[in-house]
Amino acid sequence: MSVTRFDPPRRRDPAALIIAAGLAVVAGVMLWDSARLADLGGYSGVGPASVPRVVAFGLLGLSVWTAIEALRGDFPQRPRQAPAPVLWIVAGLSAQMMLLHVAGFSIATGILFAFTARAFGKTNLAMTIPLGIGFAFVVWTIFSQLLMLNLPAGPLEHLIFPGA
Amino acid sequence: MTIIRYIRSALRMFGAAVSVVSDLRVNHLPSERELNRLGIKKADFQAIHLN
Amino acid sequence: MKQFVLAGLFAGAVALPAMADYTIIAPANPGGGWDQTARTMQTVMQEDGISPSVQVQNVPGAGGTIGLAQFASQNSGNDQALIVGGFVMVGAILTNNSPVSLKDVTPIARLTGEYEAVVVPAASPIQDMKGLIEALKVDPGAVSWAGGSAGGTDHIAVGLIAKAAGVDPTKINYIAYSGGGEALAAILGNQVTAGVSSLGEFDAQVKAGTLRLLAVSAPERIAGVEAPTLKESGLDVELQNWRMVAAAPGLNDEQKAKVAADIEKMVKSENWQKQLADKGWSDTYLAGADFEAQLAKDEAATATVLKDIGLVK
Amino acid sequence: MGAFDFLLQGLATAAEPMMLLYALIGVTLGTAVGVLPGIGPALTVALLLPVTYRLDAAGSLIMFAGIYYGGMYGGSTTSILLNTPGESASIITALEGNKMARKGRGGPALATAAIGSFIAGLIATLLLAFLAPWIVKVALVFGPREYFALMVLAFVTVSAAFGDSALRGLTSLFLGLALACVGIDQLTGQARLEFGVPVLLDGIEVTTMAVAMFAVGEALFIAGQRIHIDDELTAVKGSIWMSASDWARSWKPWLRGTFIGFPIGAMPAGGAEIGTFLSYATEKKLSKHPEEFGHGAIEGVAGPEAANNASAAGTLVPLLTLGLPTSATAAIMLAGFQQFGLQPGPLLFATNPTLVWGLIASLLIANFMLLVLNLPLIGLWVKLLTVPKPWLYAGILLFATLGTIGANPSTFELGMLLGFGVLGYGMRLFGYPIAPIVVGLILGPMAEQHLRRALSISQGDWGYLVQSPIAAVLLGIAALALIVPLILRARGKGEMLSQLAGDED
């Protein structure tokens, strides 16, 4: 819910061309997948492959439309974005994903917490990582022990709750 | 006559509201013309921190 | 915080090694039949002291085959892990080409079961099973059947009925819904010719007179239900949508006997019988070699029907 | 039994202590997320879905509805005191509300917003209760073709007609429809687009997708913007209570806002915001003090705030009676019903009246709770605003991933969360609306199944789809809604271009 102030440029937009290509690729994958499905239309005449095909052709059409708008420069200009904070959050999510089953919920999520705070300007990771792990551990305790949610436990959780 | 004018103005207002909202949904600043139709000054609108 | 730690340690210390802490996998979303079965087992086993602590874990998806695959691969030799399953799983394994089948786990016992019911809207000109079969013979496409998901018990029932009536099962016009409840809307709204689902799904509407019950798939008449069996209607079809419990693969005989004994203790308890009565489930407990024989029979029959319907090649 | 008896029965259910507790949790959480910028009710409900696995259905749904109502209340606080809307439906409140606060009339502004929300919530919930049985009666004859037509209408209105660019709206919708194709086809049991990944057999989790789009995508976008405006809190000075003239100037806008907001919320893809803008414009037109607008006119707070709460209740009409979500929050609530194996729609009123009427009645109770929570406790809510952004977003992402992990602790699911989060970020960056992709994912499979069922019943005769008058009318409206804006846009192009040339910015 944020608003960008833009003035309409009139030039080719390579990024929009990439979007058009991406849409075409998705359509291609859907067509390829639907080709291997058995036609079990039965009495309706519309089988499991029909709707994916229709959606794929729709996407192809939208891809062409996007390409035309891109070439005519009708695409809206994008707000200026700083790449570093975005990458910090992506890195945090990736770290959590890879560490989750190795290090357990608290450590993995604590790193995500610290990296996100880093993206928003809290740069001192030596302080935010322990803080994040502590907070994530409290959350883990509440949700896994009280609300019986199935959250992966790691060394930290096993240390304090040997039964987990 | 007045009824027709009333309906037309209501419809125009509705159209403007739809257009402003759809602009906001895709993170665009609505156009001055649409905002004026709703009785909103663009400067006032821009003063709101939309984030 | 401290109290939690202490409580955790305490709970760990008092757990007696002789009693198993079971984890039951319900391979479906919360609220469904398998989930309810697992949670009823949890209640009874804990309350009757069969197991001090029982956990239920939902692993939904693909007719239970996702939960089954996860269960079989992660728990080999673990005699504290159980999974709930049922007849729907037999079909789902075949239609989904699941790499894991019931042969990869250790089936322990059949617990409960429900029979299928064939209904038509009260306004339908069809009065009995004979009328429905005649319409089916004239034009199979014109008779639309609403029921649960494709390849499930309801679909198999329709396939078996068509086959028994001498109609090509590939020609049936079966309309799948995500469950009997959703199919009910279509039947009540006169959108389809007939409906097939578990008797329990239609019970209230049959009693209210908005649906006409044509037949049930039980071997003999069910007490309190005024409808003939399919067999009485001249169709040699008998089908039960059963639910079972299985243990992990790779158990030795001793472990298997221990799990089977715990389950038997649960089923024989008053608490279990009371829970079944509350939920309207019938006790169709069957264990050991008898259950294995029944399972093999059901698997073979299902495979044939699914091939006949055209869902499995 | 009439609606009134059902409502009384529902009140008995909703007044059970546990249900009251759920409602209280819901409205408290809802107000909190309404106050905090960056998290809306849709995201909150999506985050809570996995946590409520173990709770009972009625209690969880009552909690979700409380969050929805609470979110609509809470959004006004930040608009008035910070000039920062907590929710898109309270943007317009900032216009007059913040001006009032700067003049030291923050108290009356907050009061008229809270009382207006209460009155609108009360009337609109009663309207919901009395309208629902009628719509249910009509909807009971709905078959697959009528539902199919209804969904086509929702697709069109959510993506094409209301989008700034039909291209981007439709692209978002079709991406949602493409994702909806993933998984086992329910009508034949065949696996589609699953690429050998067993988790995908059951399709893409709506909650994963929604959390990724709303939480991860939003956090990435805000982080990338880097312009973090220092929010300036306007202290509430002077009397908190409304003066006699404030009351006199507020009551009509409250009522008008209610009757503008309710039907717009009930329209497919209407959304709460449209009602708030319309209410503002109406109040300005009808006001005896039009010159005060733009300088803190109380009508400009009272009307829109009533409209946004009324539209929340309006949204529940199609959701409960037809199973049709018309906003992102409603779409997530639909996923909540489905989690408990319930399908909202006419049949739910017949098979589970206790739950439906308990839910409706609990909305009335929630409304009273909100009034109590909001008037005296404003100071407490304002404190929430002092949470610095780094901790706020770090917390949001922590809970976003907690929800996903709780539902399914798999690396793959987290990978999807990240992937869809980046997609959501890209969509925001390029001006693609988010709602169509979510609606496409949720309604896509339903639309496909209804279409194929309808064609199965008619044995392949496409004409059957339009032979029912209801279905034909719905499809006709959908076609108009798709084509008319395109024509208008094409015709208006020349005019627009000359406008652009003349625009100073």
TrEMBL record, chain A:
<feature type="transmembrane region" description="Helical">
    <location>
        <begin position="125"/>
        <end position="143"/>
    </location>
</feature>
<dbReference type="InterPro" id="IPR009936">
    <property type="entry name" value="DUF1468"/>
</dbReference>
<feature type="transmembrane region" description="Helical">
    <location>
        <begin position="45"/>
        <end position="68"/>
    </location>
</feature>
<keyword id="KW-0472">Membrane</keyword>
<feature type="transmembrane region" description="Helical">
    <location>
        <begin position="88"/>
        <end position="113"/>
    </location>
</feature>
<keyword id="KW-0812">Transmembrane</keyword>
<protein>
    <submittedName>
        <fullName>Putative tricarboxylic transport membrane protein</fullName>
    </submittedName>
</protein>
<dbReference type="Pfam" id="PF07331">
    <property type="entry name" value="TctB"/>
</dbReference>
<feature type="transmembrane region" description="Helical">
    <location>
        <begin position="15"/>
        <end position="33"/>
    </location>
</feature>
<keyword id="KW-1133">Transmembrane helix</keyword>
<feature type="domain" description="DUF1468">
    <location>
        <begin position="18"/>
        <end position="152"/>
    </location>
</feature>
From TrEMBL, chain B:
<protein>
    <recommendedName>
        <fullName>DUF1127 domain-containing protein</fullName>
    </recommendedName>
</protein>
UniProtKB/TrEMBL annotation, chain C:
<keyword id="KW-0732">Signal</keyword>
<dbReference type="Pfam" id="PF03401">
    <property type="entry name" value="TctC"/>
</dbReference>
<dbReference type="InterPro" id="IPR042100">
    <property type="entry name" value="Bug_dom1"/>
</dbReference>
<protein>
    <submittedName>
        <fullName>Putative tricarboxylic transport membrane protein</fullName>
    </submittedName>
</protein>
<comment type="similarity">
    <text>Belongs to the UPF0065 (bug) family.</text>
</comment>
<dbReference type="InterPro" id="IPR005064">
    <property type="entry name" value="BUG"/>
</dbReference>
<feature type="signal peptide">
    <location>
        <begin position="1"/>
        <end position="20"/>
    </location>
</feature>
UniProtKB/TrEMBL annotation, chain D:
<feature type="transmembrane region" description="Helical">
    <location>
        <begin position="109"/>
        <end position="135"/>
    </location>
</feature>
<protein>
    <submittedName>
        <fullName>Putative tricarboxylic transport membrane protein</fullName>
    </submittedName>
</protein>
<keyword id="KW-0472">Membrane</keyword>
<feature type="transmembrane region" description="Helical">
    <location>
        <begin position="316"/>
        <end position="335"/>
    </location>
</feature>
<feature type="transmembrane region" description="Helical">
    <location>
        <begin position="464"/>
        <end position="488"/>
    </location>
</feature>
<keyword id="KW-1133">Transmembrane helix</keyword>
<feature type="transmembrane region" description="Helical">
    <location>
        <begin position="170"/>
        <end position="189"/>
    </location>
</feature>
<feature type="transmembrane region" description="Helical">
    <location>
        <begin position="355"/>
        <end position="378"/>
    </location>
</feature>
<dbReference type="Pfam" id="PF01970">
    <property type="entry name" value="TctA"/>
</dbReference>
<feature type="transmembrane region" description="Helical">
    <location>
        <begin position="195"/>
        <end position="216"/>
    </location>
</feature>
<dbReference type="InterPro" id="IPR002823">
    <property type="entry name" value="DUF112_TM"/>
</dbReference>
<feature type="transmembrane region" description="Helical">
    <location>
        <begin position="20"/>
        <end position="49"/>
    </location>
</feature>
